[in-house]
Structures are given as structure tokens and as C-alpha cells.
Amino acid sequence: MEKKKIITIFGTRPEAIKMAPLVKELEKREGIESKVCVTAQHREMLDQVLELFDIKPDFDLNIMKSKQTLTGITNRVLEGLEEIFMEEKPDMILVHGDTTTTFSGALAAFYQQIKVGHVEAGLRTFDKYFPFPEEMNRKLTGSLADLHFAPTKSSKANLLREGVKEEEIFITGNTVIDAMLHTVKDDYKFENELLNNIDFENKKVIMITAHRRENWGQGIDNICDALNKIVEENKDVELVYLVHLNPIVKDVVTKKLGNKERIHLLPPLDTNETHNLMNKCFMVMTDSGGLQEEAPHLGKPVLVLRDVTERPEAVEYGTVKLVGTDIEKIVSEANTLIRNKDEYSKMSKAANPYGDGFASKRIADIIENYFSISNIEIEEYLK
């Protein structure tokens, strides 16, 4: 039987982390010719993940430009993929989540009537501007996809409400859990010496990321003011803030939190460092989507610095709490976890809804079944 050609497409570090274990799984399948295309929507941070997982892309669009716009990214991805698709004629492309690369990749495939598989499908906030542009990237990609790999039952329910056929939706868990089985080590030594010198045993170390567009301006200001208060009011707390390189974020954070005792500002870390910092820290405060999935796997409570989340399962399970960007609410919720052992234990021991580390295997099984490469039983993935 002729192999089916599958091209996996991604462009940012979060996508790469979550697609890497799937790429490695597809490489094992004899009936699949697996190829990888990166758009390099983000360049340096993407390359770190490729090196970590030993992935050598077959195609690299290298589209990243200084001060790039969403329109520019979309145009360059569409034009680059058109040429690749015409030459390669894949049987299916796989895209992930909610980036501009994701939507543009799905649209480029649709224009050439190529099948689309959407990994991490069905996440919704039901507000098209929060997060922006991610919410609409997800919805538009969902409208173009032929197979929807939903991480949870809630994600599947969202797709059903939008009219997606039930037989096209599969519950797989989230591939980020697969990735973490590769990266997290109990005896890990950091490459960053500052992290090796932090007393994780006796200090309550809070890991922070905050950079989303909807928090630019007043949101980041408020977050920084809240973090200052938390440190001032809790002498056993240290902060490690992984500061996004965008000057809109970096300049504000550096001005408000730089050179403060027990506050460490670091640039974004590579995937190994980030996952192992998360494993050693006390709790996480973030506006990131991925950390809401990763931290619960490690038993770390998460305060989400947003008013809405497309990942409500963790809120329902009790591992994540929405606190927005109100200064007093952020400080109050953080202090509760810092000072109340019972509340901390309740969040840290809640179940993780995002999977068991076998999402990539399930997705590969479903693709093989779809193309009649094998008769692997996939009925359970529909429930």
C-alpha cells in the first residue's frame, strides 16, 4: 500500500512543544510518510524546541520579520504553503491550536482541497476578541478541518454546538502532557545559574508569565503592581518572571519590577528549563494558555491573569482559578494560597483533566484508521 503523506505545520514555540511528540509518533508509523513544515512565525524560541526533540524540518518558510503584523504573517504563510502543497500534494496537513500559522495553514490546504487535521480543537471563550486573535483562529480553523482532535469532552461539546459532525471529533487528551514526559526530571540541573541558586525547598517560588495582547497597557501595569505587593507582604516568597521579549511588555515589567529584592526577571527559557522550573516552583501565575494545562500535571496551582479562559476544564476541576488583572483580587488570591495550606493542598491535588501522555498515539491511530492504513480500534476515542 502506498504511504499517506502527512505534513505537520507549526510556527511558534508553544505549537512546536505540543506537536513535537506527535511528529515523533508519526515517524514510527510504516504507513505514513511524515514531513514537517515550520513557518518560523517565531524564530529563536521555535528553534530551541526543534533541537530539544531532534526534529529537522523538511520545509522552513522562515517568515518572521521585525514588527510583523497579523496580515503580513497570514500572507507569507499562504504564499509559502501554496508552493509546497502544489509540489508535495499531501494527503493531509496537521495544524495545532490557535496561532496565525494554524489558521493560515488550514486555509492554504482548503484552497487546494487537502484534508486538515486540527490538533487541540474545540477550545472556546465565546468572545472573538479575547484572546485576540486566537479565538477566531480556532473557530475559523475548526470550520476548515476534516478531523478534530479535541483534548477534552468540553472541547468536543463546543464543536458539536457549532455543528461539527460527531464522527469527525475525537477525544485524545492534550499532546503537551506527552511532551512533559520527555522534559521533566526530578534531578534536573538548570543551565541558568540564578535558578540553581534559588532555595526552592524553603522559599515559596512563584513562576510568572504575562504577555497576551489583551493585557498590554493597564493589564500589565496592574499585574506588576500586584506582584510588588505580594512580595512586600510575604517575606518567604520569591518571584521568577519570564519576561516576554516584546518591548510593549518588557519595558513595563523592567521599569516596575527590575532591581527589586526577591524578584528575578529572566528572558523566556527553553522548554526544558521552563518545564523543570514549573516542577520545582510553588505555584504559577500566568495569562498563558499552555501553562494552564502543564502546571496541573505537575500539581501546581495556577492563578490565571485573565477574565476568561478557553480551558474551563481546569477551573471546573479546581486546579486553576481566574483572577483577571484587578490588583486587589490578584493579591488576595495569591495570599490565600501562600498562607493557607488547606487551600493550597486542595488546588495542588485536584485531578488534571488534560490527559495521560498518550494523546499523540491516539491521533496517529485515528489518522491511520481514517486512511484505512490499519484497522486499529478507535471507537473509544469518540466518547
TrEMBL record:
<dbReference type="Pfam" id="PF02350">
    <property type="entry name" value="Epimerase_2"/>
</dbReference>
<feature type="domain" description="UDP-N-acetylglucosamine 2-epimerase">
    <location>
        <begin position="24"/>
        <end position="368"/>
    </location>
</feature>
<keyword id="KW-0413">Isomerase</keyword>
<dbReference type="InterPro" id="IPR029767">
    <property type="entry name" value="WecB-like"/>
</dbReference>
<comment type="similarity">
    <text>Belongs to the UDP-N-acetylglucosamine 2-epimerase family.</text>
</comment>
<protein>
    <recommendedName>
        <fullName>UDP-N-acetylglucosamine 2-epimerase (non-hydrolyzing)</fullName>
        <ecNumber>5.1.3.14</ecNumber>
    </recommendedName>
</protein>
<dbReference type="GO" id="GO:0008761">
    <property type="term" value="F:UDP-N-acetylglucosamine 2-epimerase activity"/>
</dbReference>
<dbReference type="InterPro" id="IPR003331">
    <property type="entry name" value="UDP_GlcNAc_Epimerase_2_dom"/>
</dbReference>
